[in-house]
Write a structure and sequence with these properties.
There is one protein chain. 57% of the residues lie in helices and 0% in strands. The chain is built from 8 helices and no strands. It is rod-shaped and about 90 Å long.
Length: 173
């Protein structure tokens, strides 16, 4: 056989033989093995294309032996350390010195409409009273008594965000 498919087939078989030799080693060089497999796959594909028929691989590639409890252990890469909290998460948990000073103008209007029927000065008085509370639980009771019907679990309406700000008032450093 002198056609080009014979040359590619010989190249493929030589590359597969090299793969088998690499697998027979106690610690195969994975980069070399990968490169040899790539050459073999490419040569087989070209040989099949040139001959227009499937070319069987004569030499089967042996399966990798998984070490058991008595053989040498396989060194697995160590997992990467956890990245930890992002800067935004750490800032959102940071203690607030003043609730009223942490509110933007938009949030003052939004929280005033939610908690004090749109009365911004009443909201600021509520903030002062919350800041004077002994702990978060006392502030929460005060907030529940003074606010109307607010869904504190709904993250969309602002009650959830306001209670999170109140919680930050009493966060430990």
């Amino acid at each position: 056989m002198s056609d080009p498919s014979t040359t590619y087939l010989e190249t493929a078989r030589a590359a597969l033989d090299q793969c088998q030799e690499l697998l027979a080693e106690t610690s195969p060089a994975w980069a070399k093995l990968h490169a040899a497999l790539h050459v073999a796959q490419r040569a087989i594909a070209v040989a099949e294309h040139c001959s227009n028929e499937a070319i069987p691989v004569v030499a089967p590639v042996p399966e990798l032996e998984v070490p058991g409890p008595t053989s040498d252990p396989v060194l697995e890469p160590e997992p990467l350390p956890a990245a930890g909290a992002s800067l935004a998460e750490r800032l959102s948990e940071q203690r607030l010195e003043s609730l009223k000073n942490s509110l933007s103008i938009n949030n003052r209007v939004r929280f005033a409409s939610l908690l004090t029927d749109g009365d911004v000065p009443a909201l600021l008085n509520l903030c002062d009273a919350l800041e004077a509370s002994e702990n978060f639980e006392a502030a929460q009771v005060l907030l529940l008594e003074t606010s109307g019907d607010v869904d504190w679990e709904d993250e969309e309406n602002g009650g959830f965000e306001f209670i999170a700000l109140v919680r930050r008032l009493f966060a430990t450093a």
